[in-house]
Amino acid sequence: IVCFSSTTFCREIFEMKRILALFFCICLLTGCNGSREPEERDYVMVIAIDKNYDTYVSVARPNRDSSSEPKEDIISSKGESITDCINKINKKSRGQLYFGHTVACIVDKSLLKNSKVVNEIITTCRNSSQFSRNILLFSSENVRAVMEAEPDNTTVSGYIEDYTEVNKSYSYDINDMIKAVTHNREIIPPKIMADKNAINITK
Fold it and tell me: How many alpha carbons fall within 13 Å on the CB side of residue 149?
């Protein structure tokens, strides 16, 4: 009888452990781990860094009306570093900034010769799981003009995606920049410029 009771007790403990494990898995899958809903995010499509760390991000938000044209809002901030600027922009935005869908990083041409800036960009990509090394890199002599441009029937990020899809030789990403730094080579991404409502990309 004692042996039977022990066996029954062990089975009950085993079943309880299974139930607790299942409950824990359900909690993880249903978002009890603190993750944000898509509606609470601002999806950063383009990040741009101008002189003096003036930083701009182009953000897209979930649009329930699929028939409307896509639109991206520009949020900017000044700070002592790129990280400082992004933290300030995060406080200004309606939702939490999310960089998992970022298409491009546009950097003032002079800053690409600044090792501090380059190292901060590389460190950010290495330390954050959101940032991909496949983010396209561009240099510009007028970052603000590019971010404020309104190319016909598309957004800045949309134009970049369409253009580089057709002109694959113009693709230069963060990973290429890391390789250039590692081998002590010059960082030479394509140039991006804005002329009124048009955006131009050249080597």
Answer: 26
